[in-house]
Automatic annotation (TrEMBL):
Protein name, per record: Glycogen debranching enzyme
Ranges for domain Mannosylglycerate hydrolase MGH1-like glycoside hydrolase: 420-590
InterPro entries on file: 6-hairpin_glycosidase_sf, 6hp_glycosidase-like_sf, GDE_N_bis, MGH1-like_GH
Domain Putative glycogen debranching enzyme N-terminal: 10-190
Organism: Micromonospora vinacea
Length: 685
């Protein structure tokens, strides 16, 4: 098995190392110091007297700092070590490492401490296909610094390493020849600052003297305030409060400021999605509305700012379309691959309108709804003008960028994700079922916004008629009467893609399912083909291409399950929703720490342990947000006018739940609930 990897993270800036704190290139994993999609350190190795060191223990203090406790020699010699090393690593607007060498003997000791340093300035999307770059290295012994620089036209990236004590600086690193008194210690602070040049660049260098204590103190205060602003959870179930606080901390860690933007927005997840991903950001905001509502206005404004305004095949851009992703790496800047701005998603645009309406329902922020009237109407127009590619009234996708655009432009964006039960791929353009639910929900919500805030009742009436017609048409064309579930998709000729998949749960969330079919859909979702025991699989077992370790062909996503559970409760299918919520919370507590973005779809009774996929992000914003959404779903939180409705359906074994100071247009409210077994025991007493 591979050695454990350790990370520190602060928004878009993160570092991944091995268990000793060393960084060495791995062609399969983004090990290194990264910022804005570029690796600024690819080699960072500590040696004592020419030898590598080994880990005794580690103390993960917060998401942005950790300490490694190390000794020289093999494990069998640990007990005899006359010296030990502590590496205290933290990250904010730069990377900081304090190295302390301790002499445990009664005699003076001399050591040669060496830190090897290098950068390849690789774009994170190229980690698996490394290419050589001409890196300029400047050793500056007088300034106690090493400068690594890469430039391609106006794309400039620079890494500067500084030491607070004298060092021998060469082009491969820094050497310290030290003498330590008996029972004494020696230490140095190493600061690694990253600089981005070019027209859109920004200097991220931290002040060398003030960084170490001031920044860490400020970040701890920011985290404490973030947690204090969120509602307080009091839970009878052991470990649930810790899981809740951990999810909130994950969300704070995964916020960053895009360049030239003043507010922080949620990024996708560590390590592969450390930028603004439109779908992930929107879903994360929706999930966390009752807990961290401040995420939403910044996200909506950022997405509106980046909204498509023209036809551009390379970007998959169309007027009104909402961004799929924003990247700052070299490949995007020069369009070596998909561009820095990329719009290849068919779901982000209707979901933008859904989020705007939901935020107003919770916050009462009518000003934001009026401010974003034009972007919202452009998004609604896009659904019919550019999303309806065959003129049959269904939202479809087909990439414009045939070279390297995303093939499947829905949340299941793997190339092989949209197949029928026999594994056959349908022709393009494809209309996946959940896209129709999103479009239906967007039109209904857009109608409310038009009538109540935009002063346009005629537009509202039109949207409502279109939504009603879409629902009727959808329930006719997508329903498979012999199988009693909705098709995964329709091909361009109106033929159904007959696979059974978790997408049908999103239909419940959007409200497009006919009332008399909801219970049948629910039976499939919690039946043995889709439900693993930990959660709902993306693709049902028994179909030809089912694969429990296939991300979209059988694995289990917490984010997917959170939407499904909310949809079940929308149709008053409380027992099924509770079963899904219980499975996801069991998974998260069994694994401990941040919930992974995806786990394998193995039957729970087979593995008895949730198996995390190697491609999974952890932490991931919409995985941590999923736990919050599931908590809100169990409590049945729903804004109704100026009041908060609480309608609990808590799974057995959770005991009593209290969520205090829930923010919204009502000020702050509390929610209380007990599971049924607890309530029965209380009555018996």
């Amino acid at each position: 098995m591979k050695q454990e990897l350790v990370h520190v993270i602060a928004g878009n800036l993160f570092a991944i190392s091995d268990a000793q704190g060393d960084i060495e290139v791995d062609p399969q994993t983004p090990v290194g110091l990264f910022a804005y999609d570029t690796r600024f350190l690819s080699h960072w190795v500590l040696r004592i007297d020419g030898e590598r060191i080994n880990a005794l223990a580690r103390d993960d203090l917060t998401y942005f700092e950790t300490r490694f406790f190390l000794v020289p020699g093999a494990a069998s010699h640990y007990v005899d070590a006359d010296m030990s090393i502590i590496r205290h690593r933290s990250i904010h607007d730069c990377f900081h490492e304090n190295i302390t060498v301790l002499n445990h003997s009664s005699q003076p000791a001399e050591y040669t401490v060496r830190v090897e340093m290098a950068s390849d300035f690789t774009d994170i999307v190229e980690v698996g296909q490394l290419r050589q770059r001409a890196v300029e290295v400047t050793a500056d012994p007088a300034g106690q610094r090493l400068v690594l620089r890469y430039q391609r036209d106006r794309f400039v990236r620079e890494t500067t390493v500084r030491s607070t004590v004298p060092a021998e600086v060469d082009e491969q690193g820094m050497t310290f020849r030290i003498r330590i008194a008996p029972e004494g210690k020696w230490e140095t602070d190493l600061h690694v600052s990253v600089t981005m040049g070019g027209e859109e660049g920004r200097d991220l260098r931290a002040d060398l003297q003030s960084h170490q204590q001031t920044v860490r103190t400020g970040m701890r205060e920011d985290l404490a305030q973030w947690l204090d602003r969120a509602p307080q959870l009091v839970a009878e179930r052991s470990g649930l409060e810790e899981l809740y606080h951990g999810s909130l901390a994950d969300l704070e860690a995964l916020r960053y400021k895009p360049l030239s933007y003043r507010e922080r927005v949620p990024i996708g997840g560590l390590p592969w999605a450390m930028g603004l991903c439109g779908r992930d950001a929107i879903i994360t905001c929706f999930q966390t509305m009752a807990f961290t509502p401040e995420l939403t206005p910044a996200t909506l404004r950022m997405l509106a700012l980046m909204q498509g305004g023209q036809l551009d095949d390379a970007l998959d851009e169309e007027p009104g379309k909402i961004l799929a992703q924003l990247r700052y790496g070299e490949t995007g800047t020069f369009s070596d691959r998909t561009s820095a701005l990329y719009y290849g998603a068919a779901d982000t645009t209707p979901l933008f309108v859904v989020l705007l309406d939901e935020y107003e329902r919770w916050s009462g922020d009518a000003d934001l709804v009026r401010e974003l009237r034009h972007p919202a109407r452009m998004a609604l127009d896009w659904i019919d003008e550019y999303g309806d590619l065959t003129g049959d009234g269904y939202l479809r996708y087909q990439r414009r960028n045939e070279r390297d655009g995303t093939i499947n432009q829905c949340w299941k964006d793997s190339p092989d994700a949209i197949v029928d039960a026999q594994g056959r791929q349908s022709a393009f353009p494809r209309a996946t079922c959940e896209l129709q639910g999103y479009a239906y929900d967007a039109k209904r919500r857009g109608a409310r916004l038009a009538r109540e805030f935009w002063g346009d009742p005629a537009y509202a009436d039109r949207l409502e008629r279109e939504a009603a017609a879409l629902k009727e048409r959808f329930n006719r064309d997508f329903w498979l009467p012999q199988r009693e579930y909705y098709a995964l998709a329709l091909d361009p000729y109106g033929e159904p893609v007959d696979a059974l998949a978790s997408n049908i749960g999103h239909l419940l969330w959007s409200g497009i399912v006919a009332d008399d079919r909801a219970e049948t859909v629910a039976e499939h979702l919690v039946g043995p083909r889709l439900f693993s025991g930990w959660g709902v699989r993306t693709f049902a077992a028994g179909q030809r291409t089912y694969n429990p370790v296939g991300a979209h062909l059988g694995a289990v996503w917490p984010s997917d399950n959170a939407l499904i559970a909310a949809g079940l409760r929308r149709y008053r299918l409380d027992a099924q929703a509770a079963r899904i919520a219980a499975g996801i919370f069991d998974m998260a507590q069994t694994l401990g720490g941040a919930p992974p973005g995806v786990i394998a779809g193995y039957e729970r009774s087979l593995t008895t342990y949730p198996v995390q996929l190697t491609t999974s992000c952890r932490p991931q914003a919409w995985a941590s947000g999923a736990l919050l959404m599931l908590l809100g779903t169990m409590l049945g939180l729903r804004p109704t006018g100026d009041n908060l409705l609480v309608n609990p359906a808590v799974p057995e074994g959770f005991g009593r739940l209290e969520l205090l100071d829930i923010p919204g247009r009502w000020g702050h409210s509390d929610a209380y609930a007990r599971d049924r077994s607890t309530e029965r025991r209380r009555r018996l007493r």
